[in-house]
Amino acid sequence: MVKKDLEKVDQASELNLSRRNVLGAGALVAGAGIIGSQMIDPIAGIAHAAGSDAPIKIGFQAHRTGIGALYGRWYERTTNAAVKHINSIGGIAGRPVEIITEDDGTDPKRGADVVEKLATQHKVDFVFGTLFSHVVMGSAPRAGELKIPYFVVSEGYHVASGALNRYVFQPCITDVRAQISAVSGWMFNNLGKNVTIIYPDYAFGYNHRDYASAAAEKHGGKIVAKIAIPPTESSYTRYFVKIPKNTDVIYHVMVGPGVLTFVRELGEHFGPNHPQLFGFIDSLEGVNISSPGLDFLDGSHFWEAMPRYASAADSAGSRFYRNAVGVDNSGASKSDSKDVAAYSHMFGCWETLFAIKEAVEQSGYKSKKDYATLIETMEGFTGFNEGIAHPQGSKAFSGKTHQCYGQQFVSKVGNGKLNVVHKTSIADGMYEPETDYTKQSL
Amino acid sequence: MSSWINENGPLLFLALLDGTVTAFVLALIALGLSLVFGVMRIVNIAHGEFFMLGAVFSWFAFDLTDDPLWGFLLALVLAPALVGGIAVFSDRFILRKIKYHPESTIVATIGLLYVIQSLTLIVFGPEARAVEAPLYFRIQFPWFGYSGYKLIVAGMSALGLLGVWLLMIRSKLGLYMRATQQDLEIAKTYGVPTKKIYAAVFALGGGLAALAGVLVVPIRQADHLMGLEPLLLSFIVVIIGGLGSIRGTIVAAFIIGISDGIISVFYEPTLAKMLATLFVAMVLVLKPSGLYGEEVA
Fold this sequence. Notes:
By secondary structure, chain A is an alpha/beta fold. Chain A has helices at 2-40, 42-53, 69-88, 108-121, 133-146, 158-161, 176-190, 203-218, 237-240, 259-270, 316-324, 343-363, 371-379, and strands spanning 56-62, 97-103, 126-128, 150-151, 168-169, 194-200, 222-229, 249-252, 276-280, 301-304, 332-333, 336-340, 383-384, 395-398, 403-406, 409-414, 417-423. In chain B, strand 2 (138-140) and strand 3 (145-147) form a beta hairpin. The N and C termini of chain B lie far apart (49 Å).
């Protein structure tokens, strides 16, 4: 079975190989052009040569340290795996890709500094990879001032809300508003109407609070309590006493170094007789579901962007991706089963690099002077097809909001793993655009 | 009244329970800071890092043995000893070199904080790592459940406090410490080896923080930045209790722990932190030596 799948993947790579040949031919033509132009104008010829052979430099703003370190580690592994694959199929527009990584400490102020350093010192073509929403909020204005395309992998609604600027794109990870719109109907209809929401006390958490409340109105549900927890908190019991008795469902989403403690203390507080639990996988991202003290989660539900556990339903692209990023069938590192991946987020890095590749190749981007064309080209995109480049699934893309929309999953915990029980359509998460970045000047 | 108790009784019970656990752990951490100030007259800004090192060593012990109980027992013995060793080393090669000058030691221990933190970042990595509790069970009260291990933590912290108290009043080392605290010159004259006492006190302070780290790590996770919060809380406790007073430290830890529990449960955890800080400011204005501190001339 597995062998067969690998064969399928090989066939898929062959398709890419033929594409490499095409690119190779293109490079030959370009090379001929250089020789030709050198005969007319030697200086222009040198500039051309640098444009076609020099690597495309992509600055990676990574959360290597700070509260996002776990995500940062996996974002970095995924990015490196994607670049390895992209370079093996001929790079971007025939040019090799070079990643320059800088740590932002999951800190908004350092984030802005990192964007500046990547743009002005390392002179990268693009900056990409930021996750935590407060860091995106802190860094994106600097990218706008420096007029450098900034591709985030963050989930926050900040891109689509219009709060940022025309240089910021989120092409390959669905935002929180769309995630909630897509799965909350299922939650209200299947688990219960009275919902208590527990969320981190900053930008990303407020997206959850606001759009879960909006979804409750739409689906005849009620948010009975909203409990905000600072993301640096280390003890949670005192927050759980605030959960009202008439709660049918606890909707929880937590991030930061304390997530395991959060879920474990939730179990200690309620024991086996807890309300229904509907969690965003962020509450358990990077945490083994069969850790001691988590058995109470059996039968509870989680939103996942990309199923952590491999199943027969996975596409060939999804399998290729899982193998390439070094993750086993239960969502842990192949070399260390204790090292569980941030699987519902990190695909965004892989896919975003392919989106950049597509935009560069379609726009004919050569150097920084082509930013306007590149941005306009990406704004013209309407979506991406499922495959090796987009293993999480097909996506719709809005040029107005610079945001993509993808399918979501609801998984149920059983036998110490997450099993997908519901898959939404892309349309389930879509909403009317609230902004139009294309009207901003470049 | 009875309806209030019916409605809020369980909340009050949880607040007291959670507050008591916090208080015991806090007392253990703050006591180390208080002893160091009392005897050596220095402020150790790196105290929280000793707590963090205890937690990190605990993770290594757990990883090495791959068994929660043996890992815990190993860490319980080794972590305070190793951290004590680091403290002795720091005393010998940093603090003694700058002659325990109050301002210089603050700067030196800030440096020590960053050195320990960065070395941990390099060796241990940036992420939070979980350590399994040696005993895992849940106590079901009529209204809610509570972690049994947290009660063990409170109990073991109490034993630690009792141990320090016995050491101070029953042992020769304790006698020397108290003598050095009361008057350094006279203690020297009577043949108290004050240099060794300084090293011992710094090691004891670090060891107590490390012990607290070992106890606490299974109910949270180990990460290289976890030292900051206990440092701030210890300062609050030590300032309120009176620098150098064991009794003051324990009383203040309970005031802060219990009030933190009650305010967090009935109002907001953030408000509890704000009020604690306000309380410190008031103590500094109204009774600068703290509740049980000696009057500073």
